[in-house]
TrEMBL record, chains A, B:
Protein name per UniProt: Phosphoserine aminotransferase
Free-text cofactor note: Binds 1 pyridoxal phosphate per subunit.
Pathway annotation: Amino-acid biosynthesis; L-serine biosynthesis; L-serine from 3-phospho-D-glycerate: step 2/3; Cofactor biosynthesis; pyridoxine 5'-phosphate biosynthesis; pyridoxine 5'-phosphate from D-erythrose 4-phosphate: step 3/5
Gene name of the record: serC
GO molecular function per UniProt: O-phospho-L-serine:2-oxoglutarate aminotransferase activity; pyridoxal phosphate binding
Pfam families assigned: Aminotran_5
Residues the record lists as binding pyridoxal 5'-phosphate: 80-81, 106, 156, 176, 199, 241-242
Domain Aminotransferase class V span(s) in chain numbering: 10-344
Length: 380, 380
């Protein structure tokens, strides 16, 4: 069996594991970026080298996603949370309304923040179903008058993922792809705007990708303060003020890895599918012990969320997994349970090892009627 | 003579050189943070370890600056530029006005951004003097009705530094200390708020320190969107949403270095003074060749800005300095000339070597009446 190190067995919900070869290059860059001769932390954001970093990164993103040269690729700060507020601050200033899907924890946060700066309409809410499924197209209430339509492609907490593109073609479609951008190909030209913080599939925490269609950008106001002004950021190629140089360089290395080592989004999607399949299989093969949280049709290829018979057994599972070298498997603090996040950086072998572990755990664990942890010492 | 590596001869205006021992620890952390066993890039911001990082960092800042426990220390994103806008967005919503000093390039930027969100009064402008000096107290036009008074303690572009605390005691004093925070002790309790991006003396680009007096925070609105809401950030101890984990950890290491290796702000100030003295001396000893830009009384201990007889000789200087191993010496693109930034991370030996180089260059360079670069080949 392939020997994996601790970083490679990290199933954290985010910041997530990065590819080993990217970590190695960043390890080197911390003391010396080869082509510059200085630590990545001491290189000026106004240097020619960094302008090239941004230029190549923009190109790599467009190339990987199959987007035309007219698409703007921005690297901003503040995470998806800043985008939650920037959207209504930019688009709902004149009293217009926007349509939002509430499909889980993070779209709830998006709605909560956006409501402070504009008027929203709920296109659908999964709250009454405890966010265990996504809406059908027929269930969506979408207005042709909406300034934009917003949804989150992958709910990391609940492990739900849209496997289609919802929304009307006559309303600007805006999607938070924080947890699945660059994990698979998609019809990305159907979006007016896509945004994603880096710390899942793309890089370290501290930078957010914002991808704008030119015709959409031209409709945005240009008189806002620079830090919330998409025009100012686009015109400056993300160097409006000092950008997070290290985080942006890291993202460049991830895009190079996707382009050169993986061979594009089609290949990374296959790899991600393999990981998801093997974990969902481990769940379904032991359906009396493991319960997947999401409706099967809406299962996420990024976050495999499941429960064990009770909270005590879940704790025992996490402890045994920790001893076996796995980390980051605890579910989100809002719902508990188990979450295996299998972002781009994670090797197929890691998911296979976890699936093996799950099988062994379910077999070796012989619960009494009381399912107490006290019965577990036999398991190691 | 002490042998310095390329990072230690980096006089960049920012991002600036970090201490060698911090770089070494970050080099290690890129693959494995010793006490965690994972890459710094894969550690959850919700982990207990990271909560401790933030907790110790807050304490270290208060300890180094001599501030009471009631002071809030925030780590935000968006740089000083975001703070430029957040101040009026938080404090001038009801039509009040604020007093600003315009002492150089960066205070000009602060004013430019702030004007988009509120009403300002100019307390003084150095524009007619080409920003070659700072105001006297008598020159400042300060209003008792101002919502706050804002200035920048060190103008990195022009090399000007306030060596006193301007402003009224009955108006909240807010200072952008981006380029000199933690470089020397100060009367920090006289400020309602201090902010500073990290990439000069404190850490890498991508995080901004915001230090707020509790009584001032309590006067700020709490209904703003989270990413521009000081209360939300303070209540969450900077983990309102995913913070820039790597940048924050780097800042922690710099504060440990200041505390344990340097021995506090008094000691780092002595070191910074030594560096500044030796470079200004090199200028003053060859006053026919080097011209310091700033009025002597307002000279910065962080950015030594000077000119040579003409732009061609300046280019020759930069080229020869580059060959001698120095980097980052070009002046800001807005004014040209030479700038030696001597932030905390730079060793005294590096400034001494640069001073030696300046002396040699001025002696060996024998300008003709036309001061052309063509005469330079003799210099190597």
């Amino acid at each position: 069996m392939m020997k994996l190190n601790a970083n490679q067995l990290n199933f954290s919900g985010g910041p997530g594991a990065l590819p080993e070869s990217v970590l190695q290059q960043l390890h080197t860059a911390m003391l010396c970026v080869p082509e510059v001769g200085l630590s990545i932390l001491g290189i000026s954001h106004r240097s020619e080298w960094f302008a090239q970093v941004v230029h190549e990164l923009e190109d790599n993103i467009r190339h990987l996603m199959g987007l035309p040269a007219s698409t703007r690729v921005l690297m901003m700060q503040g995470g998806a949370t800043q985008q939650f507020s920037m959207l209504p601050m930019n688009l709902l200033r004149n009293g217009q309304s926007a349509d939002y899907i509430h499909s889980g924890y993070w779209s709830g946060k998006a709605i909560h923040e956006a409501e402070k700066s504009g008027k929203l309409q709920l296109a659908w809410s999964g709250k009454s179903d405890q966010f265990a499924r996504l809406p059908t197209d027929a269930e969506l209430q979408l207005s042709a008058q909406a300034a934009y339509f917003h949804y989150i492609s992958n709910e990391t907490v609940e492990g739900l993922q849209f496997h289609r593109v919802p929304g009307r073609e006559d309303v600007p479609r805006i999607c938070d792809m924080s947890s699945d951008l660059l994990s698979a190909p998609g019809a990305f030209n159907r979006y007016a705007m896509i945004y994603a913080h880096a710390q899942k599939n793309i890089g370290p925490a501290g930078v957010t990708l914002v991808i704008l269609r030119d015709d959409f950008l031209s409709c945005l106001p240009s008189d806002l303060p620079g830090f919330i002004n998409y025009h100012a950021q686009a015109d400056a190629h993300s160097i409006y003020n000092t950008p997070p140089v290290f985080a942006i360089y890291s993202v460049l290395l991830v895009t190079r890895w996707l382009r050169d080592e993986i061979g594009g989004l089609h290949n990374i999607a296959k790899r991600n599918q393999q990981k998801a399949d093997c974990l969902y299989q481990a769940i379904d093969n032991h359906a009396d012990f493991y319960r997947g949280r999401a409706a099967v049709a809406d299962r996420s290829n990024m976050n495999v969320v499941f429960n064990l018979p009770n909270a005590e057994i879940e704790q025992a599972f996490l402890q045994a997994a920790h001893q076996a070298g796995f980390s980051g498997l605890n579910g989100h603090r809002s719902i508990g349970g188990i979450r295996a996040s299998i972002y781009n950086g994670l090797e197929v072998a890691a998911a296979e090892q976890l699936a093996d572990f799950m099988q062994t755990f379910s077999k070796r664990y012989k619960p009494s009627r009381s399912h107490t942890v006290g019965l577990l010492p036999a398991f190691a």
